[in-house]
Design goal:
alpha+beta
């Protein structure tokens, strides 16, 4: 055997998988350092409570079965091109079966070894004192390492299946793979590959391609205009100053994402998760955020002109100074939201929940607040000229110094707990 070779790899260990509602005890991932491509994924778990092995059989057909001997265990092998999936059932000393799932990305391993070999040969040529014997030793070492890695793969070459294992297992693997990119800007080429694979994944109803898992990725100033990323994982991603106008991000996870100054004009954000997202001065003009979750999001100074936020959840969000003029906020939950100084003129807030909201000096001219819940809201200095307050619940609300008429107040639900502007007294008071 040749001398020991240290490869430039990144090793990730996922020790607390079960805390993420994943039926595995331990996950280990190995990536090439230079290319960041996956080399080997290893998963361990005891009882197959989730039926993972049966699910793989149903999806990918019958594997090649390798018996280790009487009572010694068994391996199931699937192959897709040069990649292998091996599921081993390993009995412990008490005879209880444990499971080991291993992905071998053989083409990536071979490419890494080839690149390392070329690098060594180039370095040898640059050093005149590097002897032929030493060069031969390096090549021999690489060949031995390659042979050791592929000894298992060679035994399964005769058995082919149509598709590589995807689903929940691969989703987790991809999620951790992309985490490697979180400290450096993602190359445009790599991003294009991921979006293309996601488009294939959605178009094929998840049978081909791969879901875009970009959680925590550095996507500052990325160009995602018109991108098709429905259902993508962009949680905690840095999308500062990125361009996503006309993008399809329906059902995507953007929780905790940084979207400062991002361009999301006309984007499809229906049912998107933006909880805890940071989107200061982002432009979401005419974006469709119907049924979106924006709870506790920070959208200070953001532009949401004519945006669709019907039945969206914005509880506890920061929208101070935001432009929501002409926005559709019907039945939206804006309770405890900071809308101080926000422009809500001409917006539709029919049956919206604005209880305990901060609307100090907000512009609500010509807004539709039909049967809106404003109980306990702070409307000091708010401009409610020509706003429709029919049936709006203003109990415990503070409207001191607000601009509205007695006729408007008469159409709303007010009582002794409502603080109205000086001189405004609805009939019956």
């Amino acid at each position: 055997p040749g001398e020991r070779v240290d490869h430039d790899v990144v090793k990730l260990m996922y020790r607390y998988a079960r805390q993420r509602n994943v039926p595995f005890d331990y996950v280990e991932l190995l990536f090439s350092g230079p290319s960041q491509l996956p080399l080997l994924f290893h998963i361990r778990f005891k009882t197959d409570e989730a039926g993972t092995v049966d699910a793989l059989r149903r999806r990918h057909g019958e594997p090649r079965v390798i018996d280790w001997g009487a009572g010694a265990g068994q391996s199931l092998v699937w192959r897709h091109d040069d990649d292998l999936l091996v599921v081993s059932r390993v009995p412990d000393r008490l005879g209880e079966i444990g499971h080991r799932i291993t992905f071998y990305f053989a083409a990536n391993i071979e490419e890494m070894l080839r690149a390392e070999q070329e690098q060594r040969e180039q370095k040898a040529l640059e050093h005149l004192d590097f002897t032929l014997a030493n060069r031969h030793s390096i090549v021999t070492c690489c060949e031995c390492a390659q042979a050791a890695v592929f000894s298992h793969a060679a035994s399964a070459r005769a058995n082919r299946t149509r598709a590589s294992p995807l689903g929940r297992i691969k989703d987790i693997m991809l999620h951790l793979q992309e985490r490697i990119l979180s400290r450096r800007p993602m190359p445009a080429k790599r991003l294009a590959e991921i979006t293309a694979a996601h488009r294939l994944w959605t178009d094929s109803q998840r049978r081909q391609g791969a879901r875009a898992v970009l959680g925590g990725a550095n996507l500052k100033e990325a160009d995602l205009a018109k991108a098709e990323l429905p259902g993508a994982d962009l949680g905690d991603a840095d999308l500062t100053a990125s361009t996503m106008c006309l993008a399809n991000l329906r059902d995507a996870d953007l929780s905790g994402a940084r979207l400062h100054r991002a361009d999301l004009r006309d984007a499809d954000l229906r049912r998107v998760v933006l909880s805890r997202a940071q989107a200061v001065k982002a432009d979401l003009s005419r974006a469709d955020l119907s049924l979106a979750d924006l709870s506790r999001a920070t959208l200070t100074g953001a532009v949401l002109r004519s945006a669709a936020l019907c039945r969206a959840g914005l509880k506890g969000a920061e929208l101070a100074g935001a432009d929501l003029s002409g926005a559709d906020l019907r039945e939206a939950n804006l309770s405890q939201t900071d809308l101080s100084g926000a422009d809500l003129s001409y917006s539709n807030l029919t049956q919206a929940n604005l209880s305990l909201a901060n609307l100090v000096r907000a512009d609500l001219k010509f807004a539709h607040l039909f049967r809106a819940l404003l109980r306990g809201a702070d409307l000091r200095g708010a401009d409610l000229q020509a706003a429709d307050l029919t049936g709006a619940d203003l109990r415990q609300a503070n409207l001191s110094e607000a601009r509205l008429t007695a006729e408007q107040a008469a159409g709303a639900v007010v009582d002794a707990t409502t603080t109205l502007p000086a001189g405004v007294k609805p009939p019956g008071r």
